[in-house]
Specification:
The chain is of the alpha/beta class. It has 3 domains: 2-88, Barwin-like endoglucanases, CATH 2.40.40; 165-232 and 275-410, Nucleoside phosphorylase/phosphoribosyltransferase catalytic domain (Pyrimidine Nucleoside Phosphorylase, Chain A, domain 2); 418-497, Aldehyde Oxidoreductase, domain 3, CATH 3.90.1170. It has 18 helices and 18 strands. Strand 3 (37-42) and strand 4 (46-55) form a beta hairpin. Helix 7 (179-188) packs across helix 16 (390-401) and helix 17 (435-445) runs antiparallel to helix 18. The radius of gyration is 26 Å and the shape is elongated.
């Protein structure tokens, strides 16, 4: 198909090759992308082949802007009509088409696609199509490796010249804010754990959201290296860096639907680990009916992919699969989860023992994987670091290094907000805790954008309760949001009473 556009001479000199500029909206309408190759025909014989750029300011609809090299050599005047035809698409677009059709791609193809996402050459619509392609057909182990490698290679990387350990949860379980506790334990023992985390995608809070209540989480690479040198660790937002930048753009388009494929999740995690130079990695997979990973069979498949990828990157990976029938900890939402973390590390009388035990178990697994201690001794060492206060000293040091308040008390974290209690409508036993409905209620209350929104649970799975007992308390900074939270609570039952 050909299009007729008026030529506009631009006072722009280009290097190698010919370049033309189309109006951004018109290019989208014509189905032409930045990087596409087009031919321009003037009269019967004057033909120019050029690469397309787009702009919303340089040229108007109905115009095609010509770089100096084009109009000088071809003696094109302002207003000359060009017959424009699409000659070829960039490799990235062809790769996207292949993935949408469920076809296999090689490293060169994935690198071109990921680089164009990273460099902003893909529109949000095209990036969304790529994010959705993970649901069309599963990626092979080689493809997962290609994409993770390309994501890491197209962004910044750590080079700490030391052995690095890390832990990552696949998410999907409310609460479960074990990462700051684990990082503090590990760093207090002299190991290096540069923890970069995402913000929440499908939950009321991510580690970065919770830590942002206590300190800054956005730093450049050089500042992060200084924090690590001072404390052996960091707890920062990975999106503040150009570390696997394509992944952050894919996360952005995935967030509105609260949806990401398992392959996308695996690649996202491993790309960041490669970029941070991780040598030993523990993956936490909570498994439960209303979790992100609902069955042990699926968890086993995901484990195989993580371990396989780890081998390709020469990274030692251990996957821990834990049955999850309810949230870990009682607070769900950024500030409420931060309070849970501090209560554990400060050994508060109301601390969540399940959160403490899980964090110590995972920290112990890291210690054993790294060879810091004999198998079976890791959890005991981790627990001692919590009990003797060394882990809290380390988190306090990290918070201060990240511009936070020194010696903050767990009970100072939450501020005065609107509250509302949900009570049991009948007596009985808690037979099911719906994790997805917890997310619905918390996000209607404003989490994670409102750091002080969320819920605090008062009952546990398997507990016997009486009519009118408190089930959970809702929190939010906004009175209108509280109304929405109440509506969400009516339509999304969290605690099923049998």
């Amino acid at each position: 198909m050909s299009y007729f556009l008026k030529s506009k001479r631009l006072d722009i000199a280009a290097g190698i090759g010919n370049n033309v500029v189309l109006n951004t909206k018109e290019a989208e309408h014509l189905g032409i992308h930045p990087g596409d190759k087009v031919s321009l025909k003037y009269g019967k014989s004057k033909i120019v082949y050029a690469n397309v750029d787009t702009s919303s300011r340089i040229v108007k609809s109905g115009e095609i802007g010509l770089f100096e090299k084009v109009w000088k050599r071809r003696e094109v005047k302002n207003g000359d009509v060009a017959t424009v035809s699409l000659e070829g698409r960039p490799l990235s677009v062809e790769t996207l088409k292949k993935k949408m059709l469920g076809q296999a791609c090689n490293y060169k193809e994935f690198y071109a696609l990921i680089k164009d996402i990273s460099d902003g050459k893909f529109s949000q619509i095209e990036t969304t199509y790529y994010a959705a392609s993970g649901f069309v057909a599963p990626y092979t182990d080689d493809e997962l490796y290609y994409v993770a490698k390309a994501m890491a290679e197209t962004g910044e990387k750590f080079n700490l010249r030391k052995k690095v350990v890390d832990k990552h949860s696949v998410g999907g379980l409310a609460g479960n804010r074990s990462t700051p506790i684990i990082t503090s334990i590990i760093a207090s023992l002299g190991l290096i754990m540069p923890k970069t985390s995402s913000r929440a995608i499908t939950s009321p809070a991510g580690t970065a959201d919770a830590m942002e209540v206590l300190c800054k989480v956005s730093f450049n690479l050089e500042d992060i290296k200084k924090i690590i040198k001072k404390t052996n660790a960091c707890l920062v937002w990975g999106g503040g860096l150009r570390m696997a930048p394509a992944d952050d753009k894919i996360i952005k388009v995935s967030k509105p639907l609260s949806l990401e494929s398992y392959d996308k999740m695996i690649v996202s995690i491993m790309a960041k680990k490669v970029a941070t130079g991780v040598d030993y990695l523990v993956i936490d997979i909570p498994v439960g009916k209303s979790c992100k990973v609902p069955t042990m069979k699926l968890a086993n498949d995901i484990e195989q992919k993580f371990v396989s990828l780890g081998k390709k990157f020469k990274m030692k990976v251990k996957v821990v699969k834990t049955p999850a029938k309810e949230p870990i900890g009682r607070g769900i939402g950024p500030a409420l989860e931060s309070r849970e973390v501090l209560r554990v590390l400060q050994q508060h009388k109301f601390r969540s023992l399940d959160l403490e035990n899980k964090a110590c178990m995972l920290a112990g697994t890291i210690l054993e994987l790294k060879g810091y201690c004999k198998k079976g001794n890791g959890m005991k060492i981790a627990k001692e670091q919590v009990k003797n206060g060394e882990a809290w000293k380390k988190l306090n040091q990290i918070i201060v290094a990240q511009k936070g308040q020194k010696d903050i008390n767990s009970e100072e974290v939450m501020k005065e907000v609107f509250k509302y209690e949900i009570h049991a409508k009948k007596s009985g036993k808690i037979t099911f805790v719906d994790n997805k409905n917890i997310n619905e209620v918390c996000m209607n209350l404003g989490a994670p954008t409102d750091k002080y929104s969320g819920i605090h649970t008062h009952v546990r799975y398997g507990q016997r309760i009486k009519k009118d007992d408190k089930l959970y308390t809702m929190y939010t900074s906004n009175e209108e949001r509280l109304k929405l939270g109440k509506m969400a609570a009516e339509n999304n039952v969290i605690f099923v009473i049998g």
